Each structure stands twice: as structure tokens, then as C-alpha cells.
């Protein structure tokens, strides 16, 4: 930018190393101090870049100043300044310094200097000031050359902001445009879902390929900018990739984060102390149903429209909604030693209740998770005695009084079907399931793989049991479905006879040696196989090990 008259005018009094008060006798103390302050402000300021978003870090109670100049000779030059606080409220203002005063009579050196001193304090004027944490934009127009000073101050704590200055208002906007009505509308509320809709941004119609909507869900409050949301999540002790990974780049997530990519939607769930914070990017769809929420919980929803090329964003007006209370589950009576198979529809029926009247002081509850994800909550006479997410096979041994009433509440945490087998029994010496090893994983040995055979191993127990091995040829695109949709409660009766490899008995009183291996032969080269091992106990009810996928060597 051309500084023209201003840099010729201001430095004359300072470049010599002599302050104005030593050069002349100022007419008044106030005008002298005002002029010196104005000069100090500019010489301790930075140039604000034009056409670029600038990140500025502010220390508490220490003002920071930036300046920019409009070129001399431009007629009605427009400009705009957008300031985005990324955390706490800040104070900021714009001062303008217009062209210098007329020249004094030639030869009158003292009068000339005094005139400049007096006029310097009067040419500065504040044209805008603001205090708060909202995104604010100032639109200005200048008909003559001028120098502008921006001052920023944080009085609460150290923070950072972003500032965008542009003097070219005709070639488009850095930030995506919001519609005339930027509100988010809640059009549906369920026990675990909330459906939202919002009006399309004009930017979506013009730049569909580089623009997308992203939704932030949390249990604390709404955020006025994406920058503020990022800062809040980081302050919870988490490290985030830039712009909340909204650009769909393959950033490495922290242990507290879970990434889910389905139906072209990216979801990132952050586990923070104040609850979950979810980020979902859904392309250019302007209606979205938020799934898997907790019943009777208030959530805050913010929608941001993001330019993937520049990472610039604009925030819709946030909203909030409270999910419906958890309905009373259907209650079924549990009887001694009887196994009940409960299936929960992830969309229609997510809750189920079981009631058991104790006829003994000690009760043994057994849960075998068959499919999906389920949370179990057990109460005795209205008081909670156990609550956790089920994983595989789980036992609860509880001690109470005769005729105690136990209620078992089951809740699906998935959108698709979940199922579990449940048994209540006072007979500890008659377990429903066999004694389990320390791990139900199947191990394969890469060095022992050939084109025609695979060697696998699994752990056994100190109790003699029957183990049956099954194999199934699969394709690459079937792996995820086979591993995720498998019914872990189903036994070999659901398998085709041709898939059976062998059955064997073994045990070892020394658990360190309770390991068996098996080499499966007669396989095809370069082919994927799914291997399963079933463990049978005295009751005959099988337990399925975790499936293992192994590929034979292509060349030997």
C-alpha cells in the first residue's frame, strides 16, 4: 500500500532522535501529550495484511495495535474488517487519521511546528468500537487518503482472535455467505435423536464442490464461531487438527476421539469432561438427524458453513433441544436357570426390562452379547448394584436377601439391531457357559502361511472341553460385514457342513501351557479365509472365539 503523505508527515519529528517537546515549546501540555501518544501508537503497531485472515494473540490487559492505509487518489474506496474472537469477549476499536493540515506560511518555523502539533491531536477520530465475543464486521468507505489504527484488548485472560481486512469488495468473499434467515430449526425430537434443518447458504449454490455444512453438538453451550469451538475443545485437554478435521483429511486422532465415516458423512466424537462433543460434516445437505443421544439430556447445536479451499467459515445462529425422557421399558419375568434371548431394534425399541424375584441370597446373572452394543443396568429394590456396557460374556454375582426384587434394564447403543442372552441362576455349581480362557482371540502365524495352508492357535482352560474349527472363503469387500454383523451367540448349527474343519478336546492344568495349534490344509493360493473356533462346555452351549481373517500366500 502507498503510505504517501502520512509517512512523510509523521516521522519528521522522530527520525532525528529528538522528541517534539525538545524541538519547540508546545502551546499546551494536553496537545503535546496527545500528539506524542499518537506517534507512539503508530511506531508500536504492525501492518495488517490486506486480503488475508490474520491470527492475533492477545495477552491479558495488554493492547495490541495494527494499522493499514488507503491509497491516495482513490475515490470512495470501500473496505471491510471482520474480527472473530476465539474465546473470551474482547474490546476492539478503529481510529482514522485523515490528511494533514494545510501548510503554514513559509519561513515561520515555530508557528509551522505548533500548527502541526495542534492539528495532529484533532485529525484522529474513533469511528467504531465493540466489546463482546460475537463475530463483527465493519464496512467502511473513504473518499480520501487515510491511515487506520485498530486496537485490540482482552481483559479476562490470554486469548487469540482472527482479523480479515479487504479493500477489494468486488471479487468475492473469503467467508461463505449466510442466508437471510440464519437460524437452525428443530423439526423433530426423540428419546435419542434430534432432527435439524436450516436454510441453504447462497455460497452452496455457487461453489457446491468446495463448500460443506458441518454440525457441532455438545452439552455445554452454543459457539459463535468455529474458532471458538476449536478453542473450547482444546481447553478440555485435547489436541485437535486444524478446523476440527472438517476438510476430511486423514489426521491422526487422539485416544479420546472416535472417527466414524459412513454415507459420505464424517463424525468425530470427543470424550471430554463435560460430556461428548460431536462434529459431523454432511456435505451440502441442510437436514440432519443427530443419532445416539442420551435420553432426557439438553444438547446445543451449531451449524457452520465451511470453505474447504480456505478453511474460512461462517456460523448459523445456534439452537438447543432436550431429548425426550427414557420410556418405561417392557418388563419380562426371569425364571431360575432359564435363558432369555432379547433382541432390541435400534430404531424402534431400544429398551427392555427383566424382573427377577430372588429365592436365594446369592444370585448369578449371566449375559452373552450376541450382536451390536448394549448397556446393562441392574437394580436391587430400586438401588443400582451394577451398570456397564456389555462386551462378550459377562457374569454378575450378587448377594442380597430372600425375596429381593432385581430389575435388569437393557439399552441398545446402536442404530441397528442388538441382541443378548440373559440368565439368572442361584446355582453357582451349574454354570450355563463353559470356563473361559484369558482371551478369546485366534492367532495366526505369518511365517507358517503357505499357498495351501494356514496355522492358527488359541488358548484353552484347565477344564477339558470340546473345540470345533470352521473356515469360510470370503472376498475383500465382505470382511467388514462378516466381522461386524456376525451373531456371536450362534453355534455351529448355523454353519454349512462343508465349512467344518475338525473338532478336538484338550486342556492343561498349567494355564501357561493351555495353548493349542492347528494347521488347516487344502486351501487355495492367494485367497482370504474366515476362521472360527467354538468352545463347548458341560451344558452344550457354545462360546464363539473372535473370528480371524487370514490370506494364503499367492506365490510359494
What does this structure look like?
By secondary structure, the protein is mainly β. The protein folds into 4 domains: 43-99 and 123-166, Mitogen Ypm (Jelly Rolls); 173-238 and 276-327, Immunoglobulins (Immunoglobulin-like), CATH 2.60.40; 331-425, GOLD domain (Jelly Rolls, Sandwich), CATH 2.60.120; 442-551, Sandwich (Immunoglobulin-like), CATH 2.60.40. Helix content is 11%, strand content 42%. Strands 12, 13, 14, 15, 17, 18 and 19 form a 7-stranded antiparallel sheet that branches. Helix 3 packs across helix 4 (109-122). The chain is elongated. Mean pLDDT is 80; it is low at 1-32, 101-105, 109-122 and 239-264.
What is the element layout, followed by pairings?
Elements (H helix, E strand, L loop, with lengths): L3 H6 L10 H4 L5 H15 L2 E2 L4 E7 L5 E7 L6 E9 L4 E8 L11 H14 L1 E9 L3 E7 L3 E8 L5 E8 L17 E6 L4 E5 L3 H5 L4 E8 L7 H9 L22 E6 L2 E8 L2 E7 L5 E4 L7 E10 L5 E3 L3 E4 L8 E3 L5 E6 L6 E7 L4 E10 L2 E7 L2 E7 L3 E7 L5 E8 L5 E8 L17 E2 L9 E6 L5 E10 L4 H7 L14 E7 L8 E6 L7 E9 L5 E3 L3 E4 L5
Parallel strand pairs: 1-3, 20-22
Antiparallel strand pairs: 2-9, 3-8, 4-7, 4-9, 5-6, 5-8, 10-11, 11-16, 12-15, 12-17, 13-14, 14-15, 17-18, 17-19, 21-28, 22-27, 23-26, 23-28, 24-25, 24-27, 29-30, 30-33, 31-32, 31-34, 34-35, 34-36
Helix pairs in contact: 3-4
Radius of gyration: 35 Å
Count of individual domains: 4
Q: Estimate the global geometry from the Cα principal axes.
A: elongated
Counting DSSP H or I runs of 4 or more residues, the number of helices is 7
Quick one: biggest sheet? 7 strands, antiparallel
Determine the mean pLDDT: 80
Helical content class: 10-25%
Distance linking N and C termini: 70 Å
Architecture of the largest domain, CATH level 2? Sandwich
The fold-level CATH name of the largest domain is: Immunoglobulin-like
CATH C-level name of the largest domain = Mainly Beta
CATH H-level homologous superfamily name of the largest domain: Immunoglobulins
Amino acid at each position: 500500500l502507498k503510505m504517501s503523505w502520512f509517512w512523510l508527515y509523521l516521522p519528521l519529528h522522530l527520525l532525528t532522535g529528538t522528541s517534539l517537546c525538545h524541538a519547540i515549546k508546545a502551546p499546551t501540555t494536553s496537545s503535546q501529550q496527545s500528539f506524542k501518544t499518537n506517534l507512539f501508537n503508530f511506531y508500536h503497531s504492525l501492518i495488517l495484511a490486506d486480503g488475508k485472515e490474520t491470527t492475533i494473540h492477545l495477552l491479558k490487559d495488554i493492547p495490541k495495535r495494527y494499522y493499514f492505509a488507503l491509497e491516495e487518489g482513490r475515490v470512495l474506496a470501500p473496505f471491510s474488517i471482520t474480527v472473530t474472537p476465539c474465546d473470551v469477549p474482547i474490546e476492539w476499536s478503529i481510529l482514522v487519521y485523515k490528511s494533514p493540515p494545510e501548510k503554514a506560511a513559509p519561513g515561520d518555523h515555530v508557528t509551522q511546528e505548533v500548527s502541526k502539533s495542534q492539528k495532529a491531536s484533532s485529525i484522529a477520530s474513533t469511528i467504531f468500537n465493540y466489546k463482546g465475543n460475537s463475530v463483527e464486521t465493519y464496512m467502511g468507505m473513504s473518499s480520501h487518503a487515510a491511515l487506520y489504527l485498530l486496537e485490540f484488548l482482552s481483559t479476562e485472560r490470554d486469548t487469540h482472535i482472527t482479523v480479515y481486512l479487504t479493500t477489494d469488495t468486488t471479487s468475492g468473499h473469503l467467508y461463505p455467505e449466510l442466508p437471510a434467515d440464519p437460524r437452525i430449526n428443530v423439526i423433530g425430537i426423540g428419546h435419542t435423536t434430534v432432527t435439524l434443518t436450516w436454510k441453504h447458504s447462497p455460497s452452496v449454490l455457487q461453489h457446491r464442490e468446495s463448500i460443506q455444512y458441518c454440525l457441532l453438538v455438545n452439552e455445554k453451550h452454543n459457539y459463535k464461531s468455529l474458532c471458538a469451538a476449536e478453542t473450547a475443545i482444546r481447553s478440555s485437554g485435547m489436541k485437535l487438527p486444524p478446523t476440527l478435521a472438517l476438510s476430511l483429511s486423514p489426521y491422526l486422532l487422539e485416544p479420546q476421539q472416535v472417527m466414524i465415516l459412513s454415507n459420505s458423512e464424517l463424525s468425530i466424537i470427543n470424550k471430554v469432561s463435560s460430556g461428548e462433543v460431536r462434529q459431523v460434516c454432511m456435505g451440502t445437505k441442510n437436514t440432519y438427524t443427530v443419532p445416539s443421544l442420551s435420553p432426557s439430556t439438553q444438547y446445543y447445536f451449531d451449524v457452520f458453513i465451511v470453505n474447504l479451499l480456505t478453511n474460512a467459515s461462517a456460523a448459523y445462529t445456534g439452537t438447543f433441544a432436550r431429548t425426550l425422557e427414557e420410556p418405561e421399558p417392557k418388563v419380562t419375568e426371569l425364571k431360575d436357570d432359564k435363558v432369555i434371548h432379547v433382541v432390541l431394534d435400534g430404531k424402534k425399541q431400544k429398551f427392555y426390562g427383566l424382573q427377577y424375584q430372588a429365592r436365594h441370597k446369592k444370585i448369578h446373572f449371566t449375559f452373552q452379547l450376541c450382536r451390536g452394543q448394549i448397556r446393562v443396568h441392574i437394580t436391587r429394590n430400586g438401588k443400582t448394584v451394577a451398570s456397564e456396557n456389555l462386551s462378550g460374556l459377562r457374569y454378575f454375582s450378587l448377594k442380597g436377601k430372600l425375596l429381593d426384587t432385581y430389575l435388569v434394564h437393557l439399552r441398545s447403543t446402536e442404530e441397528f439391531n442388538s441382541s443378548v442372552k440373559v440368565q439368572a441362576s442361584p446355582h453357582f455349581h451349574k454354570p450355563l457357559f463353559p470356563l473361559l480362557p484369558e482371551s478369546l482371540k485366534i492367532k495366526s502365524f505369518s511365517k507358517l502361511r503357505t499357498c495351501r495352508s494356514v496355522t492358527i492357535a488359541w488358548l484353552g482352560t484347565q477344564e477339558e472341553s470340546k473345540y470345533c474349527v470352521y473356515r469360510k472363503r470370503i472376498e475383500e469387500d465382505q470382511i467388514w460385514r462378516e466381522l461386524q454383523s456376525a451373531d456371536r451367540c450362534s453355534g455351529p448349527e448355523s454353519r454349512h457342513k462343508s465349512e467344518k474343519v475338525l473338532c478336538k478336546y484338550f486342556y492343561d492344568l498349567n494355564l501357561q501351557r493351555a495353548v493349542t495349534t492347528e494347521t488347516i490344509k487344502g486351501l487355495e493360493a492367494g485367497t482370504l479365509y474366515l476362521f472360527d473356533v467354538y468352545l463347548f462346555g458341560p451344558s452344550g452351549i457354545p462360546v464363539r472365539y473372535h473370528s480371524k481373517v487370514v490370506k494364503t500366500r499367492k506365490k510359494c
